[in-house]
Amino acid sequence: GGTGAEFTAEAIDMVHQNTHGIPRLVNRLCDFAMVYAATEERRVVDAAIIEEVLDDGIFLPAVHASGEAAE
After folding, report:
1. Considering only CA atoms, which of 51, 31, 27 is closest in space to residue 39?
2. Which of 37, 48, 60, 68 could form a disulfide with 42 if both were Cys (CB 3.0 to 4.6 A apart)?
3. Is 6 left (phi over 0), alpha (psi -120 to 50) or beta?
């Protein structure tokens, strides 16, 4: 288990913005972010790590019913 401080507040906001709180997507994005953090030997996932995951294109953000990517 963790301490609850593994993600910064800004990182959590970015996760929510890109997943709309959909549990399956939250888990995938957070998993990728934790892998990125571990490879950099970092103990906290911050917004820069979330941005790096998103920029690498390995995670697709949630899409609205209109077919547009979530903002």
Report:
1. 31
2. 37
3. alpha
